[in-house]
Design a protein that fits this description.
The protein is built from 19 helices and no strands. With about 425 residues, it is mainly α. It folds into two domains: about 170 residues, MFS general substrate transporter like domains (Growth Hormone, Chain: A, Up-down Bundle), CATH 1.20.1250; about 210 residues, Growth Hormone, Chain: A (Up-down Bundle), CATH 1.20.1250. Helix 1 packs antiparallel against helix 11. The protein is globular, with a radius of gyration of 22 Å.
Length: about 425
């Protein structure tokens, strides 16, 4: 197996793990009768680990361990932990297992990047293809559940004749209600098995030795250097807008699965349980296509306009959720906007940071924005969203359930307006316009 193919498989498995359990957890936790504060603690295990990783553990791992060995051990421990989540139903056991998984999993996101960059001859040419393996892995994690989350009793009752009829019956008879939530435990089993596979596979990855600290470089307070970047007004504005967009982005993950699966009488879409993850994966498919046109879009529209389109993509999607839930085809079609939301904003932010900051400051700047994207924005959304959706279901009011999506819709519009009015980066010769 070539080095590039190994790196592609590494990325595939890395994001397959996350994509397997994340979309369905938001509906699974209430089914275990966890209180909103308990759901918040579990959901915030990931962003809290992300903040910890950005400030401390990533640097510690980089300096003290061979990357491929760190990856193997992390996925062994993290894989056993997420596997355990399938077999426990009490709060403290589930919370501790999820926390252990996240603490060991989150640093591996940057570790896989380190292995990839260290193993490439031309990162600009090769990394995009390798990283695409992660997006494909996330998509691939969704589709097995069209056959896992199936009501096999209904399929048996249909008495299909022949393979084609059997497949058609399986696809039409997804689990619902309590049976769906019970079947959701398979998402943790699939994620755990993938993690253990990656632990073994990591031992065959190219050797990536630990990095030695540069003389004079802070070993533990690199985040202080990043915070100093906020003295630039355009950086502060973009940082705050990134927080809002990350919050909006995570509202999508918190609520979309429940919204898609809820009955139409409750303001939902009524999509069978085995199709919820595949429908959400349409966004990742669109993300791959959008990334191909991102460079051309930046050159034509510039940084600010491209990012505004990315933010407003959320507003349009949540607008459709709020006002047209009775049209399943439209709800499915609007998932395509996820690609625009991610590529036109988050990916553009990463490119912008790489373009505008000196080489010796880029790592700190990327870390500064990652704290918002993977950490604080997610943490705030995971704190607010469980309480809002639980209070909505208690009212039993269809209008209230649809109205949930007005919260991120308004936030997205406000962020887009703020970016348009106050984001004025300095000019750079030869690069995209402002």
């Amino acid at each position: 197996m070539s080095v590039r193919l190994k790196l592609f498989v590494m990325m595939f498995l890395e994001f397959f793990i996350w994509g397997a359990w994340l979309p369905m957890i938001f509906g699974y936790l209430p089914s275990l009768k966890f209180e909103p504060w308990q759901q918040t603690l579990i959901l915030n295990a990931f962003p809290a680990s992300a903040i910890l990783a950005m400030f401390f553990s990533n640097q510690f791992a980089d300096r003290n361990f061979a990357a491929e060995k760190f990856l193997a051990v992390s996925h062994l421990i993290g894989g056993l932990a997420i596997l355990g989540c399938a077999y426990v139903t009490d709060f403290w056991s589930f919370f501790i297992l999820m926390l252990v998984h996240c603490i060991f999993y989150v640093p591996t996101i940057s570790i896989t990047n380190s292995i990839a960059f260290a193993s490439m001859k031309d990162a600009q040419e090769e990394f995009g293809i390798v990283r695409m393996g992660g997006t494909i892995g996330w998509i691939a994690a969704a589709w097995p559940f069209t056959f896992i989350l199936v009501d096999w009793e209904a399929v048996k009752a249909a008495n299909p004749e022949g393979l084609v009829s059997w497949i058609e019956a399986a696809l039409k008879n997804g689990l619902t209600g309590a049976a769906l939530q019970e079947g959701t435990k398979w998402t943790y089993i699939v994620a755990g098995v993938a993690s253990l596979l990656l632990a073994v596979f990591s031992l065959g990855l190219p050797h990536t030795p630990p990095k030695k600290a540069v003389e004079g470089e802070s070993r533990s307070l690199a985040w202080l250097e990043a915070l100093r970047l906020l003295k630039h007004p355009f950086v502060l504005v973009l940082w705050l807008v990134t927080f809002v967009d990350a919050f909006v982005h995570n509202c999508y993950f918190n609520w979309t699965g429940s919204f898609l699966g809820a009955a139409t009488t409750a303001g939902g879409v009524g999509i069978p349980g085995n199709w919820i993850m595949p429908v959400m994966s349409v966004g990742q498919i669109a993300e791959i296509l959008t990334m191909f046109i991102l460079g051309m879009t930046l050159k034509r529209l510039g940084w600010r306009t491209t990012m505004i389109f990315g933010i407003l993509g959320h507003a349009v999607r949540f607008g459709v959720y709020s006002f047209f839930p009775e049209h399943p085809w439209l709800i499915i079609a609007v998932q395509v906007l996820h690609g625009i939301c991610y590529a036109f904003f988050f990916a553009t932010v990463y490119i912008f940071v790489d373009e505008f900051f000196p080489k010796d400051m880029r790592s700190s700047a990327q870390g500064l924005f990652n704290v918002m994207i993977l950490g604080i924005g997610s943490l705030v959304a995971n704190t607010i969203c469980p309480t809002l959706i639980q209070s909505t279901f208690k009212t039993g009011d269809v209008t209230d359930f649809r109205g949930l999506f007005l919260v991120p819709l308004v936030a997205a519009v406000a962020a887009a307006v703020a970016l348009g009015l106050f984001f004025h980066p300095p000019k750079i010769n030869g690069g995209p316009k402002e």
